[in-house]
Design goal:
Layout (H helix, E strand, L loop, with lengths): L2 E9 L22 E9 L6 E9 L5 E3 L2 E4 L5 E8 L5 E9 L5 E10 L2 E11 L3
Antiparallel strand pairs: 1-6, 2-3, 3-4, 3-5, 6-7, 7-8, 8-9
Protein backbone atom coordinates (compact mmCIF):
# COMPACT_ATOMS: atom_id res chain seq x y z
CA UNK A 1 0.00 0.00 0.00
CA UNK A 2 1.36 3.41 -0.95
CA UNK A 3 1.04 6.12 1.66
CA UNK A 4 1.24 9.81 1.00
CA UNK A 5 3.03 11.95 3.55
CA UNK A 6 1.45 15.36 3.50
CA UNK A 7 3.37 18.34 4.74
CA UNK A 8 3.66 17.61 8.43
CA UNK A 9 5.20 20.27 10.57
CA UNK A 10 6.71 19.52 13.91
CA UNK A 11 8.00 22.29 16.01
CA UNK A 12 9.73 22.07 19.33
CA UNK A 13 8.36 24.92 21.49
CA UNK A 14 7.58 27.17 18.55
CA UNK A 15 4.67 28.37 16.47
CA UNK A 16 4.92 27.22 12.88
CA UNK A 17 2.38 27.86 10.12
CA UNK A 18 2.28 25.78 6.94
CA UNK A 19 0.97 26.92 3.61
CA UNK A 20 1.53 24.12 1.09
CA UNK A 21 0.84 25.49 -2.38
CA UNK A 22 -0.75 22.35 -3.79
CA UNK A 23 -1.84 18.96 -2.51
CA UNK A 24 0.91 16.36 -2.79
CA UNK A 25 0.41 13.35 -5.07
CA UNK A 26 2.06 10.03 -4.22
CA UNK A 27 2.81 9.20 -7.87
CA UNK A 28 4.93 12.35 -8.25
CA UNK A 29 7.25 11.05 -5.53
CA UNK A 30 7.89 7.64 -7.18
CA UNK A 31 11.65 7.47 -7.88
CA UNK A 32 11.87 11.27 -7.54
CA UNK A 33 15.27 12.94 -7.25
CA UNK A 34 14.46 15.84 -4.89
CA UNK A 35 16.12 19.22 -5.25
CA UNK A 36 15.44 21.31 -2.11
CA UNK A 37 15.86 25.09 -2.27
CA UNK A 38 15.46 26.96 1.05
CA UNK A 39 15.38 30.66 1.89
CA UNK A 40 15.02 32.43 5.23
CA UNK A 41 14.01 36.09 5.55
CA UNK A 42 13.01 38.27 8.47
CA UNK A 43 9.27 38.24 9.05
CA UNK A 44 6.95 41.22 9.33
CA UNK A 45 6.40 40.70 13.06
CA UNK A 46 9.28 41.18 15.50
CA UNK A 47 11.32 38.02 16.16
CA UNK A 48 9.67 36.04 13.35
CA UNK A 49 11.27 34.55 10.26
CA UNK A 50 9.67 33.35 7.03
CA UNK A 51 11.09 30.04 5.81
CA UNK A 52 10.27 29.11 2.22
CA UNK A 53 11.22 25.93 0.41
CA UNK A 54 10.71 24.61 -3.07
CA UNK A 55 11.13 20.88 -3.60
CA UNK A 56 11.28 19.78 -7.22
CA UNK A 57 12.23 16.59 -9.08
CA UNK A 58 15.64 16.97 -10.77
CA UNK A 59 14.57 14.49 -13.47
CA UNK A 60 11.45 16.33 -14.61
CA UNK A 61 11.57 19.81 -13.08
CA UNK A 62 8.11 19.14 -11.59
CA UNK A 63 7.50 21.05 -8.33
CA UNK A 64 6.63 18.47 -5.67
CA UNK A 65 5.97 20.78 -2.70
CA UNK A 66 6.43 24.40 -1.64
CA UNK A 67 6.12 24.57 2.15
CA UNK A 68 6.20 27.96 3.86
CA UNK A 69 6.77 28.36 7.59
CA UNK A 70 6.90 31.12 10.17
CA UNK A 71 9.32 30.45 13.03
CA UNK A 72 11.06 32.18 15.92
CA UNK A 73 14.80 32.20 16.74
CA UNK A 74 16.23 29.15 18.47
CA UNK A 75 13.15 27.00 17.80
CA UNK A 76 13.64 24.16 15.27
CA UNK A 77 10.96 23.83 12.57
CA UNK A 78 10.64 20.49 10.77
CA UNK A 79 9.01 19.58 7.46
CA UNK A 80 8.19 16.03 6.30
CA UNK A 81 6.78 15.57 2.80
CA UNK A 82 6.69 12.78 0.22
CA UNK A 83 5.40 9.22 0.04
CA UNK A 84 6.04 5.79 1.59
CA UNK A 85 4.65 2.29 1.22
CA UNK A 86 6.82 0.73 -1.50
CA UNK A 87 10.39 0.80 -2.77
CA UNK A 88 10.97 3.91 -4.84
CA UNK A 89 8.54 6.04 -2.81
CA UNK A 90 10.66 9.07 -1.90
CA UNK A 91 10.24 11.48 1.01
CA UNK A 92 12.16 14.49 2.30
CA UNK A 93 12.56 15.55 5.92
CA UNK A 94 14.32 18.76 6.85
CA UNK A 95 14.81 20.99 9.87
CA UNK A 96 15.62 24.71 9.88
CA UNK A 97 16.65 26.55 13.04
CA UNK A 98 17.20 30.31 13.06
CA UNK A 99 20.04 31.30 15.42
CA UNK A 100 19.15 33.37 18.48
CA UNK A 101 21.03 36.29 16.88
CA UNK A 102 18.71 36.10 13.85
CA UNK A 103 21.62 36.46 11.39
CA UNK A 104 22.11 32.78 10.46
CA UNK A 105 20.05 29.60 10.18
CA UNK A 106 21.07 25.95 10.15
CA UNK A 107 19.52 23.42 7.78
CA UNK A 108 19.71 19.64 7.88
CA UNK A 109 17.84 17.17 5.70
CA UNK A 110 17.39 13.54 4.77
CA UNK A 111 16.02 12.05 1.57
CA UNK A 112 14.42 8.66 2.19
CA UNK A 113 13.37 5.76 -0.05
CA UNK A 114 10.34 4.13 1.61
CA UNK A 115 11.47 5.46 5.00
CA UNK A 116 15.16 4.44 4.67
CA UNK A 117 17.67 7.32 4.53
CA UNK A 118 19.57 7.41 1.22
CA UNK A 119 21.04 10.92 1.42
CA UNK A 120 21.62 13.64 4.00
CA UNK A 121 23.11 17.11 4.15
CA UNK A 122 23.59 20.02 6.54
CA UNK A 123 24.61 23.63 6.05
CA UNK A 124 24.40 27.12 7.48
CA UNK A 125 22.80 29.97 5.56
CA UNK A 126 22.59 33.72 6.03
CA UNK A 127 19.21 35.23 6.87
CA UNK A 128 18.12 37.82 4.28
CA UNK A 129 17.06 41.20 5.62
Amino acid sequence: MKNLITVALLCMSSVVVANPSAPAQADLWTNARPDVQVSVVRGKAMDTYELSASISDLRTGQVLSEPKLIATPGKPAQVQVGATGADGMISVEFTVTVADSGDMATYSSQVKDNGVAISSQSFTLAVAR
